[in-house]
UniProtKB/TrEMBL annotation:
Pfam families: Sua5_yciO_yrdC. PROSITE patterns: YRDC. It comes from the Bacteria. Coiled coil: none annotated. It comes from Streptomyces sviceus (strain ATCC 29083 / DSM 924 / JCM 4929 / NBRC 13980 / NCIMB 11184 / NRRL 5439 / UC 5370). NCBIfam families: L-threonylcarbamoyladenylate synthase (TIGR00057). Residues 8-194 form the YrdC-like domain. This is Translation factor SUA5. GO terms for molecular function: double-stranded RNA binding. PANTHER family: DHBP SYNTHASE RIBB-LIKE ALPHA/BETA DOMAIN-CONTAINING PROTEIN (PTHR42828), THREONYLCARBAMOYL-AMP SYNTHASE (PTHR42828:SF3).
Length: 200
């Protein structure tokens, strides 16, 4: 897949496979992620299995833009300004989920979910074609320090558990910076690719 001019036909085929419950690995502006359809219970189960996640893990809704993000999380004025100034970019924000978010995606106690708007041409093209967020999780395997960065390597190791790998060349090795706004104040949960200075 061309990193700057992704082929529309290929993007359309990938989107169609996701609508049919495919689980894919795809590049972002931070590192590769696992992604599936928003309401895919099978996709969620497979991501949990691949990454050995428990039910307290925050899944992320990867959104095309701020308007889409606003459908799935509640954002007050101050938080709105902070997030708006940082997107698109390598940040994941944890916020209270709206009723649009399936309960199986919400943190069981906090009723929160992660959201982000990536600054990546291929991901943005895919989100535009899908018309809804991608349910995602960083492609970081259990007991490994760093995510895989090469599409061929991901295909080689995970071909038996994935339905496809979107390869548009190398992407970063650093996951997103995670900021939890669910308590009203910014709490840095994970230092990653995004600059944290404005949240400290």
């Amino acid at each position: 897949m061309h990193p700057d001019n992704p082929q529309p036909r290929t993007i359309s085929q990938i989107a169609e496979s996701i609508r049919s419950d495919a689980l894919i690995a795809y590049p972002t502006d931070s590192c590769y992620a696992l992604g599936c359809r928003l309401g895919s219970r099978d996709g969620i189960d497979r991501i949990r299995t691949i990454r050995h996640l428990d039910d307290r893990h925050h899944f992320t809704l990867v959104c095309q833009d701020f308007a889409q993000l606003g459908q799935f999380v509640r954002v007050d004025k101050d938080v709105f300004r902070a997030i708006k100034a940082s997107t698109p970019g390598s940040y994941t924000f944890i916020l209270p989920a709206t009723k649009e978010v399936p309960r199986m995606l919400q943190h069981p106690k906090k009723k929160t979910v992660g959201v982000r708007i990536p600054d990546h041409v291929v991901t943005q093209a895919l989100l535009a074609e899908l018309g809804e967020p991608l349910l995602s999780s960083t492609l970081l395997l259990p007991d490994e320090e760093e995510p895989m960065t090469q599409g061929w390597e991901i295909k080689d190791r995970l071909d038996h558990v994935l339905d496809g790998v979107v390869d548009s060349g190398d992407c970063g090795t650093e996951p997103t910076t995670v900021i939890d706004f669910s308590g009203g104040e910014a709490e840095i949960v994970r230092h990653g690719a995004g600059d944290t200075s404005r949240f400290e």
